[in-house]
Amino acid sequence: MIKPGESPANNWEEKYKKEHKLRQEAETETILVKAIGMNSPEMKAAKAEIKNLKETLESRDYTRQHDYQFLIDENRRLEEERNMLTLDNKRLAHQIDNQVDRLRKAGAL
Predict the structure, then answer these.
(1) Chain-centre distance for alpha carbon 8
(2) Type and span of the H or E element at 85
(3) Distance between CA atoms of residues 71 and 68, nearest Å
C-alpha cells in the first residue's frame, strides 16, 4: 500500500527488488541443494550401485539370450535327428517285413 508522500513508482521498484532478491536466494538455495545432493557420498554410492546393477543385468540378458538361441538350435537339431531315426525305423521295419515274407514264400518259416 502506498504511504502518503510515496510515489507509486517507488513502491513498485521496492516490490520488484524484494521479489528479485527472494527469487535469487531461492535459485541459489536450489543450486546448492542439487550440487550437494549430487556429490554427496550417498549419491555417489547409489550411482555406483546402479551402474553395477545395470552391468549385471546386461550380462545376464546377453547370457539369457545366448542360452535361448542355443536351446532353439539344439531343439532343431534334435528334431531333425528324431525325424531321421523315425524314417530309418520305418525303412528297417519294411525291410524286415519283406525278408519275413520271402522266407515264408521259400518255406523256411
Answers:
(1) 62
(2) helix 41-106
(3) 5
